[in-house]
Amino acid sequence: MTKILFLGDIFSKFGRLAVKRQLAGIIAREEIDLSLANAENASGGKGLSQDSALELFDYGLDGLTGGNHTFQYSELEPMMDNDGRIVRPANYPTPCPGRGWTVLETPGGVKVGLGNVQGRLFMNSNLDCPFKSCDRILEEIGKTGANISIIDVHAEATSEKKALAWYLDGRLGALFGTHTHVQTSDAQIFPEGLAYISDAGMTGPHRSVIGMNKDESISFFLTGRAKRYKPAKGDIFLEGVIVNFNQKGRAEEIKTLKIKCEEY
Known about the structure:
This protein is α/β, with parallel strands linked by helices. It has one domain (2-260): 4-Layer Sandwich (Purple Acid Phosphatase, chain A, domain 2). It is built from six helices and 13 strands. Strands 1, 2, 3, 4, 11, 12 and 13 form a seven-stranded mixed beta sheet that branches. The longest helix is centred in the N-terminal third of the chain and has 19 residues, at 12-30. It is globular and about 50 Å long. The N and C termini lie far apart (36 Å).
């Protein structure tokens, strides 16, 4: 069996601190073989800087996925090109910095293919089809001899994520939804062994509106006038999922993780 941890969107410095304080204990208690996370909001609540990426790797994360804020920090682009531990959505039109999939290896020698796509519904209609992009990801990962395959679908609509899960069941080990920052209660194993959740949640401040200061969010809905949002503070939670995979790369168990952290 191979046990993999995936953390929902790491948000701002408070999310990074939650990883710093909690990750090592989770890995030890749960006997985690590989630790992954979506980190596209890890720097200031929007984007991922090179320093934040290196910080998260230092805390013990093995791989990071992206989303619609992946390119907020241009300084990250050379790192995305050269560091195989970071993936961005594969369905951005080419040419594009970085890679849409990679292969990581557990201490026990199990190869894990990690891919990333972004949804188009209510998001960016200029992107390539995420369904066909997943076909290409799995074809390329298959050539590497990877034992397990995982894709982070960074999307707004649950319908798009769920349809993609049914489309990939039997060919993919796990499909984790990210982006909405609200952990869903639909963690499940599909008939052909795909582990799924519509949204893995958010690792960061929950006394907020999806991570941002609540007062600014309320003001926007009342007035229609957008202002610069600032990351919130308080009620720090670490959220994600843990999946057990068998030797054939199929998921046998998925459970959600939600840990209340001390205030920072």
